[in-house]
Amino acid sequence: MVELDQMKVELQNLKGDLEEAQDSLNLPFKKERIEELSREMEAPDFWNDADKANGKMKELKDDQKTVEEADGLTRQYDDIMDLIAMGNEDGDADMISEIRSELDDFENKLEELRLATLLTGEYDANNAIISLNAGAGGTESCDWCSMLYRMYSKWSDKKGFSIEVLNEVPGDEAGIKSIDFQITGTNAYGFLRSEHGVHRLVRISPFNAQAKRQTSFVSCEVMPELNTDVNIEINPDDIRIDYYRSSGAGGQHINKTSSAIRITHFPTGIVVTCQNERSQFQNKEKAFEELRAKLYLRKKQEEEAMLSGIRGDVKEIAWGSQIRSYVLQPYTLVKDTRSQEETSDAQGVLDGNIDRFINAFLKMEANRKLEAAQRI
């Protein structure tokens, strides 16, 4: 049948992309590493250093997941070929829709695998820490902040990632003034670093009696969760640690003890807060993790500014550029100002369907790196 022959050609054209993606992932090395780590785990002293052991456990799971996905695509490719052959032999037109669905699923998974090969940054595989802060605009901006938090929560759910709120300051009337949260999952930072910047919303305000159109801004800061062996020194003389009672929702113990932590870093003016863990120790540990991540991010920005020949003060990226506009009235459009990727399905984006913008950013970044390498 013509439809099946067309799908066969379409599938065969993807064979090269599949092989290229698998080669880029260096699967033979990952399989050897899986065997090596599995042997190390059997050693009686493996858990003597818990941090080191947990790091190796994460590496093992990440490598196993990558190999499983890559090998799974090879099997799926062969299965679709078999289905096409069966359909042609039997002349069963009912199989066309089933094969079309399998082929679309294969293409989507291949695209995800291909994009994973672009995540080559030092901390791309790490978990992500995100800070959302409402801009000027009062209740309207606070509501926009809560909408963005919901968007990233929905995206995390779709990816099978977990999300943990570290600190939250509610708005005076509605929404969220600021929120810090961690998204845990393989390549979480690699994907979400594309979200770093200012997000702009245009809509008819539900808080305005005259139903006027209003523009709101929220800054999104994305940082990698750093391993304990990353060398980010914090001088005890440069910080102040404040302890206070948690103001958010929590159990009886949380609200009756001074378990919340605020750390102020004097040289940079960075302030981090954590109050959602059950103990003061856990909050302090999480707060220091976030401080180290913020200091790392600032250091990278300064290095990039120097390499680019930029002079003057290094400004916070979060408030320095608008990366995406979400227009809900008088028409619907979400457009990324960097990659120019856009869609009219604004509600879908707010429901967590942001992969198209993440993918466009990663492709744009890869093309820029390739162009820069060719100029050398």
The rough form would be described as globular
Uncertain regions: pLDDT < 50 for 5+ in a row? 250-255, 309-320
Strand content: 15-25%
Q: What is the residue-mean pLDDT, rounded to a whole number?
A: 85
Please tally the helical runs, counting DSSP H or I stretches of 4 or more residues. Answer: 11
Question: How would you describe what is shown here?
Answer:
There is one protein chain. This protein has 376 residues and is of the alpha+beta class. It has 3 domains: 115 residues, Methane Monooxygenase Hydroxylase, Chain G, domain 1; 163 residues, Alpha-Beta Plaits (2-Layer Sandwich), CATH 3.30.70.1660; 72 residues, Double Stranded RNA Binding Domain. Helices cover 49% and strands 20% of the residues. It is built from 11 helices and 11 strands. The protein has an 8-stranded mixed β-sheet with strand order 2-3-1-5-4-9-10-11. Helix 3 packs across helix 4 and helix 4 packs antiparallel against helix 5. The longest helix is centred in the first third of the chain and has 41 residues. About 5% of the residues have low confidence.
